[in-house]
Amino acid sequence: xxxxxxxxxxxxxxxxxxxxxxxxxxxxxxxxxxxxxxxxxxxxxxxxxxxxxxxxxxxxxxxxxxxxxxxxxxxxxxxxxxxxxxxxxxxxxxxxxxxxxxxxxxxxxxxxxxxxxxxxxxxxxxxxxxxxxxxxxxxxxxxxxxxxxxxxxxxxxxxxxxxxxxxxxxxxxxxxxxxxxxxxxxxxxxxxxxxxxxxxxxxxxxxxxxxxxxxxxxxxxxxxxxxxxxxxxxxxxxxxxxxxxxxxxxxxxxxxxxxxxxxxxxxxx
Length: 269
Ligand SMILES: CC(C)(COP(=O)(O)OP(=O)(O)OC[C@H]1O[C@@H](n2cnc3c(N)ncnc32)[C@H](O)[C@@H]1OP(=O)(O)O)[C@@H](O)C(=O)NCCC(=O)NCCS
Prior knowledge:
The protein is of the alpha/beta class and 269 residues long. It is 19% helix and 23% strand. The model is unreliable at 223-269 (pLDDT under 50).
């Protein structure tokens, strides 16, 4: 199937390589809202314009797209955008990735070279399982989480939606990492991690608490009356993740807002 790649940054190049290696879909071009890239080629593939080109390209017979944006919130919003335009949200799975036959994999996922997904794992929509990571048995990865290169998740680990597990981190068995939490590079996580907090080190310790209601409201750019436990705003967390440098692959962004709730765990299929 002719396929667009949304995002022409570093992660977009990785996804292009995966598609060439896997030969499951035929990449025909990137879309990226960075106007400086329009009309250029990235690794030989043209950048056809911004996300506003989706309906135009759909009318020309292109129906599929892979989302290649590192920022967790933006990636999820892109899924909504593709649904609005009735595009098929495709996955890019490197042929060297090892997936257990009974693992459940959502749509719009990117699984990079050498990643391993063991028995009975559930991988949610828009998840990135990056190069050489290990997701061991019966672990669950929530929607739009990012498991960075070389991460090791033991058995029965739960990564809630939008969480970012930094490069080389280890999470021991039965631990739950809260939604939109950030785990620093190389951390060893021995206990549960609260939502929207940042932990680093060995053993992992908290260096950033969840935002207060006021901070969360300012992230939203609006007055949020309810408590931050009830608020809804992955896009706010996108801003937070950018502030933290938590998703360095997000050199291409859509600027598209999302109305998705801050669901604590949202395995779609
Ligand atoms: C965790 C991380 C997001 C923190 O970023 P931040 O919120 O900007 O935090 P800061 O840089 O202000 O650091 C806060 C404290 O944590 C320490 N720290 C930050 N990252 C750390 C890490 N990975 N391991 C150990 N300590 C770390 C800092 O030294 C600082 O300590 P101090 O307060 O004693 O001086 C970032 O350092 C990180 O590890 N990012 C992961 C990058 C990655 O995995 N990239 C791969 C993408 S595919």
